[in-house]
Amino acid sequence: MRSFSKFSRLPAVIATSCGIISTAIFTLSPAYSALPNQKTVAARSPAPTAPGATNQIADIAARLRQNSATPCSTQINAAGAAVLAGAIQFDTLSNWNPKGGSQRSVNVAVAQRYPAGETIPSGVSAIVATPVSPGRCDMVAVQVVPSPLSCDAVRSAMAPRAQARGQLVGVSVMQQGPTETLLVPTGTKTCVVVDLTTTYAQ
Questions:
Q1: What pLDDT score was predicted for residue 121?
Q2: Are the CB atoms for 148 and 82 separated by under 8 Å?
């Protein structure tokens, strides 16, 4: 069974790249249609065939750099290494503004697939980065995975290393470092685990 220890890797990796001065709960906006000045490109990038098969970091920011949206690519790839831990395959979807992309927010959505037999077969992540000065970026990373366990079981598994923050209309919130984990119960007594990590460049 996949443990929830992988969720603890994301804040450490992002913190190393960005430097954390504070964290915040943020609101996710509804999906929106592509605007005329927005470029969306899907790029399939197979991950290693087995976990640990290579130490090479997947270049999930490659399409951004190819289109001159480069300032936060190092931080995005560092966060990508965390969300892809244990995955055997992934696809990416990149978004940037072709007018001044080097000065605007960019994002990379990542769908990851885990080995056959894993309790959690797949997940999705989104990494949003905004340059604030040369080499420095604010960043938000979101990771969503479905768990066959109940939210009570997930909360108990996280309790030794995470702090309970309370509930938001029935959704439990756990805190570990800069990451807030929301445990969303489903109608089938399983749980959708949503990690929100916000980092600000120093």
A1: 86
A2: no
Question: pLDDT tens across 132-161, in order?
Answer: 988 899 999 999 999 999 999 999 999 999
pLDDT digits (tens, 9 = 90+) for 154-200: 999 999 999 999 999 989 999 998 899 999 999 899 999 999 998 88
pTM of the model: 0.72
Query: Please, what's the b/e burial string for 21-42 (b: 16 or more CB within 10 A of its CB; e: otherwise)?
Result: eebeeeeeeeeeeeeeeebeee
- The dihedrals phi and psi of 31, each to the nearest 5 degrees, come to -60, 150
Token pair of 92 as six digits = 């990416």
Contact 124/141 with Cβ under 8 angstroms?
A: no
Supply 106's token pair: 């960019």
Cα-trace Rg, the chain: 17
Residue 167 in contact with residue 185, Cβ under 8 Å?
no
| CA of residue 164 relative to chain centroid, distance | 21
Roughly what angle, to the nearest 10 degrees, separates helices 9-18 and 73-83?
170
Cβ atoms of 176 and 154 within 8 Å: the answer is no
Residue 48: is its pLDDT beyond 60? Answer: no
CA 145 – CA 11 distance, rounded (Å): 17
Average pLDDT over residues 92-116: 88
Give the span between the Cα atoms of 7 and 40, in whole angstroms.
28
How many residues does this entry show for the chain? Answer: 202
> Which residue's entry shows tokens 């949003």?
128
